[in-house]
Design brief:
By secondary structure, this protein is mainly beta. It has a single domain, classed as Lipocalin, CATH 2.40.128. It is built from 3 helices and 20 strands. The longest helix is centred in the middle third of the chain and has 11 residues.
Length: 296
Amino acid sequence: MPGGLEASLVSLEEQSVQFRFTVSAGFGFRGDHVETAGLDSNGNGTTPGPHQHQVTMNMMSIQPSFTFAALEDWNLEVLLPLRLMQRKAKIVDIGEPYDEADAQRNLDIHHPSKTLKGVGDLAVMFRSRTPDVPWSWGATLPTGTTEEDPYVLGGHKLAHEHVQFGTGTVVPRLEYRALNDGWITMVALMAPVYANRHGFTAPPELTLFSARRGQLTDVITWTLGASARAQGYGDWSGKRDINTGYGALVADAGLSWNTGSGTFHLGATFPLAQRLWQDGSDAFELGPSVAFSFAP
């Protein structure tokens, strides 16, 4: 379930201040694309012949969060994601002649096999302790690492990185969360408004989530639903980042177990349909994911 929503709704209903610990992992994200560029041993661009870059990514995130009373009727939630990404990339023959050495050198400066790890952007959200107020508001703060413009570096045949752990800016976030007659509803909007020091403006993101919630036993609840996710375009100094922009429909299921001393939640998602907005994009398509959280 998006962002440990089940645990958050429990805390909202009980109006309790709490700590929550979440571990999530995503598998088999794919960024395959056909490539025609190469690099010779002197660092000069070549045209080695068409071939495919087969790129996969597995991701893991550890997210501790703290919620405490900040104002008379509002809690402040603070969440810091710690992320690890394992990227594997290789060249695949598509039946056309190509120079393997030049093709490999070009892959190595773009997205080599590598394990990336770092701190993401700190998220702060004000959430009402009054059930009649479903709106939450806040922002992400620029604690995650950012990269120089990869298109400029790539244009000079230099090693670069497209993966960023942060946006480098303060990004406003608005959420609507509600639980009515066994239905959970969430709307979340992130809307970057300016560029970071490298000239990058992160893409806006919108998530619409709805799920049915019911009792399996006196202490176990289930949820089953779906989310629609849309990411707009980011840009580098006013030039569109072709590796941003997608839409996806994702199935979502979860189980929560209230032990009396805390709540365990296990969730899973699976993409049903997705599309990259930009032709020629190297962006990763979503894979399945699982998440585990505990809130004492």
